[in-house]
Amino acid sequence: MEHHHHKPGLRVRLRITAARRRAWLSAGLQPACRKPPRRDPSDSVHKVARREIGGGHRRPPRPAAPSSSAFSCPEKFRNFQLQEEYDTYDDEVHFLVQLPFLWSRTKIIEIVAAKDVIFALAQSGLCGAFNRATNKRICYLNISPDEVIRSLFYNKNNESLITVSVYESDRFSSLKCRTTPIEYIRRGQLNDGFPLFETESLKYPGFVEFDDVNGKVLTFSAQDSTYKVFDLKNYNFLYSICDKNIQEIKISPGIMLVIYQKSANHVPLKILSIEDGTPLKTFTQLLHRSRKVDFIEQFNEKLLVKQDKENLQIIDVRNSNLIEVNKTEFMTPSAFIFLYENNLFLTFCNRTVAAWNFRGELVTSFDDHELWHSNCNTNNIYITADQDLIISYCKASKEVRDSGGCEGIAPPTGSINMSNIFTGKCVAKISPLDPTLTIAPRKRGDSSRSTIRSTVSDALEDITALFYDEDRNEIYTGNSKGLVHVWSN
After folding, report:
1. Residue 286: inside a domain
2. Residues annotated as region Disordered (predicted)?
3. CA–CA distance, 435 with 417 (Å, rounded to integer)
4. What residues pair up with 284 in beta bridges, in sequence order?
5. Per-residue b/e over 419-445, b at no fewer than 16 CB within 10 Å?
6. Sheet-wide strand order for 362-365
7. How far apart are the C-alpha atoms of 353 and 226, rounded to whole Å?
8. What is the pTM of this model?
9. What are the distances in angstroms from CA 438 to CA 82, 418, 447, 475, 483?
10. Is the dihedral angle over the CA atoms 181, 182, 184, 190 positive or is it negative?
């Protein structure tokens, strides 16, 4: 967008080794990825070999077999219709915010829903809150006229929404965090929220990262090369790590992997307890001297290492056992999602999704699930809490493209596809070519219904954000026009 060139933008990155959200400042970058929600861990685990795998309750990893969960059931999505339409923009915006670029319609980049409130964040930095019961906009979350909101995080520990923002008053140079209970937002009492991490200097390349698997917040102050860990439940400071040689810290259930600056032919690594920062293991990983590192990722006791034009290595850090996956079979993905419930990981590469196990075997290839967006923008992907279903904004199937549109041109709209992660089968979809898909009729005497100006086809065009509310069994989509649509049965 032309109005962003004068200021650093905040990019939201999906560090998909855990359910966590990282936000940092970087010149000209926009929010890129969103994590799928995860459950809270039931306990803290200190030993590398005995770690919680990120579920809401303890249970062994599921085998890679067809799931019987209700989430995979096509009936759950049967008779989905377009129920509501919310507009993030209207004439009131001019009176509330002073920055002209906040007045312009931009695409929805993130949707979060909690307690019957839907939050829609536009790329401009404007964020609207809508009441799902009354279908009215409650308020804008920009409480200062020069506030540009860059990221949202729902903290289930205290049922509050954390906004991460930048401000014109300090030339958009540092991140500011604020927490507001959902109940206050529902009543429009935004001023009853309070700022977080005020003592931290979050100037570029500093960041804040929210990890709801472990219930922790990680901040990085670039000024003094200090990482700090806070408790997500009460925001209490826990401990800090100060070392200029740290290149990156990655979070997994129960632990943090500290990656140090690469030496000539190896990279020093350290595993710390997430609870108190205690070192659990220190080791080095050999590397090819002349190859760039594509990624180093940690999952339970497994370390995944991939260098350019080299095989994928899966190393067991307990006994150094090594599994290699040929580089012709495993292409470097643009994003990962680690599925702690099922001991699998998803890779996203060239609009395709695949599920792998930690023996380096391809477990699932997905039928009829070609992602619409080539840049693997995980704003358009949702994975259910049981991690058995993936919901994405997809291209129309090949059969439809071959027969549809004028002279075989693919329709300009995509579909919302629900696929079983274990079988790869598409179990349901919301498609513009479905003759039964309509705008749900207004019930007699229902005054809460919003006005829907879009057609079903319009609402499925250029979807830029997607969220599935598992409690309500509703899908919320946002598009390039700044509109939010509700799909349910």
Report:
1. yes
2. 30-71
3. 16
4. 268
5. bbbbbbbbbbbbbbbeeebeebeeeee
6. 335-339, 344-349, 352-357, 362-365
7. 36
8. 0.84
9. 6, 19, 20, 15, 18
10. positive
Are 475 and 115 in contact, with CB atoms under 8 Å apart? no
How many Cα atoms within 13 Å fall on the side-chain side of residue 91? Answer: 0
pLDDT at 23 over 50: yes
305-353 pLDDT tens trace: 999 999 999 999 888 899 999 999 998 888 888 898 889 999 998 889 9
Structure tokens at 201: 């200097």
The answer to whether residue 57 sits within a structural domain is: no
The identity of residue 19, as a single letter, is A
- Give the Cα separation of 116 and 258 in Å (integer): 39
From residue 181, give the alpha-carbon distance in Å to each of 144, 177, 268. Answer: 18, 14, 42
Please compute the mean of the pLDDT values over residues 271-280 and round it to a whole number.
Answer: 94
Q: Which of 196, 188, 35, 30 is nearest to 111 (CA)?
A: 35
Q: What tokens appear for 2 in the block?
A: 């032309």
Q: What is the pLDDT of residue 135?
A: 93
Q: Name the one residue in this structure whose structure tokens are 């594509």.
A: 294
Closest CA to 285 of 274, 340, 302: 302
Identify the residue whose tokens are 């570029």: 204
Q: Is residue 287 part of a domain?
A: yes
Its domain, for residue 305, covers: 264-333
Span of 323-337, 420-434, 443-457 with lowest mean pLDDT: 443-457
Residue 311 lies in a domain: yes
* Residue 179: strand pairing partners: 162, 194
- Ranges 25-29, 138-142, 208-212: which has the least confidence: 25-29
Q: Give the other-Cβ count within 10 Å of 322's Cβ.
A: 11
Distances in Å between the Cα of 141 and the Cα atoms of 125, 372, 466 are 10, 30, 20
Say if CB 138 and CB 130 are below 8 A apart.
yes
**% the chain with pLDDT above 90:** 54
